[in-house]
Here is the input.
Amino acid sequence: MPSPGPRTLYDKLWDAHAVAEDDGETLLYVDLHLLHEVTSPQAFAGLAAAGRTVRRPERALALSDHNVPTMGQAAGPAGVADAAARAQLEALVDNTRRFGIENFPMGDPRGGIVHVVGPEQGRSQPGMTIVCGDSHTSTHGAFGALAFGIGTSEVEHVLATQTIRQRKSRNMRICVEGRLAPHVHAKDLALHLLGLVGVDGATGHVIEYAGAAVRALSMEGRMTLCNLSIEMGARAGLVAPDATTFAYLEGRGAAPGGEAWTAALARWRTLPSDAEAVFERELRIDAADVAPMVSWGTNPSQVIGIDGRIPDPAGLPSADARDAAARALAYMALLPGQKIAGTRLDRVFIGSCTNSRIEDLRIVADIVRGRRVAPHVRAMVVPGSGLVKRAAEAEGIDAVLRAAGFDWREPGCSMCVGMNPDRLHPGERCAATSNRNFENRQGRGGRTHLMSPALAAASAIAGGIADPASLD
Ligand SMILES: CC(C)[C@H](C(=O)O)[C@@H](O)C(=O)O
Ligand code: SF4
Here is the structure.
């Protein structure tokens, strides 16, 4: 049932996919179902046990990313030492073969992190509904697609029916006017917004990012921004499709070609929110107020600018916030009032579905070219896909990184999450370009500071948390 009157981008996506209503819930048609090895084995097992088939196998794509080691991938799943990881990787190969789903297995050059590969292959397109058993599915909203994470039982439901039950969220718009300063990137904007909105401040909402500073972002930047929407509690993040979106998609594998491209463009141009559309919540910020950001705590809203000092829990408004901050500081081994810049690091991790695309790696290479990683730091760069890796190698980025002392790895989630051999040791402090700094996430007792690739690169060189401007 189309909503009456002017509609937002979200309303339009919703209306175009609603196939039935029941008791306040809507059954939405799913255009693209992305799968990975961790949240799909039970779904396939359930499907097989019920004697069901996959309704539209051509609308699914499977990737192996969380469990894969980032060295020696050519050996395939059989070469994975951890038995549980190996079983999940092998199950994905078997299940996709059995049900006729396209799969880029471990070691396939087209493979990599699901949220990097979908867009790269041209599978993620404006106007679509996209789901995956993974919270950071919000990334694909950068294309003007309604993209959100689902649970394993829902993965089974989508496999069987190509639909998903949903309750409609409220519309929220974040307008970012003006221009980001030099060395300030989409990641800084996302962390800045997290600091303002909080980790559950956007619960029950779908956020549309708008304004001149968002329009000026590349597709890579928009993906980084939408990726972190889930950390604010939002159901999804969205950017209206425009010339930047179309230029990124034109000629990409699965993107429409010829007359279908012209028809798609005409359709996609109708998607942006109507001028009179109403958003239940609006937030406006000036891009010039966004500093290079760093997290100091154990959730991604606990952030400060690179020139800032660690906050004093005693100054926080509620008992809960004071307790959370005190606990975070104890875990992170940081003191109130301490400057964040200069905090000594053991490790640097550049990668993850937040920041492992070619543009991210170019930024890193530009900063570290001709410099050396500090001797006490172990730094690694993990491209988001095999194709990002190849593109970087064709540009000589790998050579620049290796010469600076970085480890250059094969694609995967890697040290974003401790599900593969790339982990922090207890007590190690790491600058990371990923999206979650939860306790023990990068390895038991590991301490994570979230930041942009630019800051992570500068920090690797300086040996402690550093502003790239300090190297200029
Ligand atoms: C393993 C997976 C279910 C999880 C997610 O949903 O986000 C992971 O990708 C993460 O980033 O924590
Ligand atoms: S890179 Fe990290 S955040 Fe992204 S899907 Fe993998 S584990 Fe999740």
Q: What stands out?
A: The mean pLDDT is 97. The first strand starts at residue 18 and ends at 22. DSSP finds 15 helices and 19 strands in the chain.
